[in-house]
């Protein structure tokens, strides 16, 4: 993974979403150009997890909005959590023993729009 490219894409000042892209494994899952820029730095695996698991989890819990939290610890992999709000317990979580994402906490927003689930950066509102 190119950590510098990921951090630059994640922290870039954005004025909304310019374009959505459809995930190749799940035609109902779309992601923004900002998320694509982060994925191109080397974390398409995160989109694969989001596309194949999160839509069902969100619908099962009746959530139209969710926040994906990725907490990367030094040399300890990462913890993924999907929550409906910051002050609520996760509706889904997973620990990965390995990740090449840069150390830190990274947040993404998901929205269920009936015909698709979309993933965006928090800076793309």
Describe the structure.
By secondary structure, this protein is α+β, with helices and mostly antiparallel strands. Helix content is 30%, strand content 32%. It has two helices and seven strands, in the order αββαβββββ. The protein has a seven-stranded mixed β-sheet. Strand 1 and strand 2 form a beta hairpin. Helix 1 crosses helix 2. The model has no long low-confidence stretch (mean pLDDT 95).
Secondary-structure blueprint of this entry?
Blueprint lengths: L2 H9 L8 E3 L6 E4 H28 L4 E8 L5 E6 L8 E5 L7 E9 L4 E5 L4
Parallel strand pairs: 2-7
Antiparallel strand pairs: 1-2, 3-4, 3-6, 4-5, 6-7
Helix pairs in contact: 1-2
Question: What descriptive keywords fit this protein?
Answer:
7 strands; globular; seven-stranded mixed β-sheet; 125 residues; alpha+beta
Distance between the termini: 26 Å
List the secondary-structure elements in sequence, H or E.
Answer: HEEHEEEEE
Instruction: Outline the low-pLDDT stretches.
Output: none
The fraction of residues assigned to DSSP E strands is 25-35%
Radius of gyration, in angstroms, nearest whole number:
14 Å
Largest β sheet strand count, sense and barrel closure: 7 strands, mixed
Number of E strands: 7
Q: Figure out the total of helices.
A: 2
Please estimate the helix content: 25-40%
Structural class: alpha+beta
Mean pLDDT: 95
- The global form is globular
Within the largest sheet, what's the order of strands?
1-2-7-6-3-4-5
